[in-house]
Structures are given as structure tokens and as C-alpha cells.
Amino acid sequence: MVSKIGTMKQTFLVALGCATLAAVTAAHGQNSVSTGTKTAIFAGGCFWCIQPAFDKANGVLKTVVGYSGGTEPSPTYKLVSSERANYRESIEITYDPAKISYEQLLDIYWRQIDPTQADGQFTDIGPSYRAAIFYDSAEEKKIAEASKEKLAHSGKFKKPIVTEILPSMKFYPAEAYHQKYYQQNPEHFEAFEEGSGRVSFKKKNWVQ
């Protein structure tokens, strides 16, 4: 199912044109995780919208938006947005655990999504927009479950917290025009983020 906001997103992308996925993948490989760093993968609806908060966090070294959760090799935005695959728009975060913990990353993550929505995020509806925490170890799974339970008992939301906690799968970087979209196309980004209802939701539930 494609929302009106999703259609707006598609229109923005037509104007941008397509950069090669190969170039992004190559850059991703060249900047692979160095000793002493860790990675985390989260899905939170439109990946454009969850990237800025992590980029601002002290201890986060790099973020890459892309696709995770599916099995088809080398997925493209066209495939993922067709909802014919199990991929979800996601973000891979490389961080320094000496400066920011996995639990702190989860705290940032919860503030970017509607954890009570199961069919997508805000006006973006469909499998590729479903929120999920992809854990890479038993420790991460334990931390994620505890974080979810803490949020469920916080009283902040009346509805159940339905965000999934799933085993990690291979992450594929998205095309270049998706990376740092909020910097590449700030006006389009702001219009999309506001129009989706994400901004008002965050203000209502998190801004004190």
C-alpha cells in the first residue's frame, strides 16, 4: 500500500536521478568497522527520517541507510518499495562503545518512531516501513528486550509496544541519493518529515 506521503517521496526521487549502488557499496566496504567499534541496525520507517538523530549523537562515528531483513541479493530501492521483498528500510550505525552504549542508541531509536504501530510508520504503510531492532548477539537481544519492556512500563503510551526484535540479517547500503538525504535536500526532507506526521508525534510524546 502506498501512502500519499510515499508518493511524495517517489516524486522527490525522480527529480534526483539515480547514482549507482555499486559506488555506495564500495564506499561502504572501504569504511568497514575498525577495531574497537561496533555496529547496530535498526528499522524505523523512512530511513531518511531516522538518520539525523543518530548523526548528532556523541560516539556515533558513521551512519548508512539501507535495507535489511530480506534475502534477495543486492536489493534496490525499486525492489524494496514494491513490497515484494521482506526488506525494511534500515540504518546501520557504527559507534564507539566507550562513548555511547547500545542501550543509549536504543533510547535515541525509540524517540524516532511510533513503537505502537505495526503496519509501518506514520503515513508510510507497508512491510518495508515496519519498525524493528536487529540484534547481533544474545547480549544485544537481552538489552533490546529490556529496553522495550522499560518503555512498555513507562506509561508513555497507552497502546502496546509492538516493535519487533529480530535476529540480524545482511545489511545492504541504499543508493547514494538516499544517504544524508536531510543534508542533500533539506527542503524536501523537511516537507516529507512534517507531512508524514512524524514531527508532531515526536513533539507530542517526547518534547517536554
For the structure shown, list the relevant keywords:
208 residues, alpha+beta, Peptide Methionine Sulfoxide Reductase, Chain A, 6-stranded mixed β-sheet, disordered N terminus
| Number of distinct beta strands | 8
CATH architecture term: 2-Layer Sandwich
CATH topology: Peptide Methionine Sulfoxide Reductase, Chain A
CA-atom Rg in angstroms:
16 Å
Please summarize the sheet with the most strands: 6 strands, mixed
Number of helices: 9
**What sequence of helices (H) and strands (E) makes up the elements?**
HHEHEHEHEEEHEEHHH
The CATH homologous superfamily is called Peptide methionine sulphoxide reductase MsrA
Q: Which structural class is indicated by helix and strand composition?
A: alpha+beta
Distance between the termini: 34 Å
Q: State the name of the first-level CATH class.
A: Alpha Beta
Counting structural domains, the number is 1
- Order of neighbouring strands in the sheet with most strands: 7-6-1-3-2-8
Helix content: 40-55%
**What is the residue-mean pLDDT, rounded to a whole number?**
88
Q: What proportion of the residues form beta strands (DSSP E)?
A: 15-25%
- Name the shape in a single word: globular
Verbal overview:
It is built from nine helices and eight strands. It is of the alpha+beta class. The chain has a single domain, classed as Peptide methionine sulphoxide reductase MsrA (Peptide Methionine Sulfoxide Reductase, Chain A, 2-Layer Sandwich). Strands 7-6-1-3-2-8 form a six-stranded mixed beta sheet. Strands 4-5 form a two-stranded antiparallel ribbon. Strand 4 and strand 5 form a beta hairpin. Helix 5 crosses helix 6. The longest helix is centred in the last third of the chain and has 15 residues. The N and C termini lie far apart (34 Å).
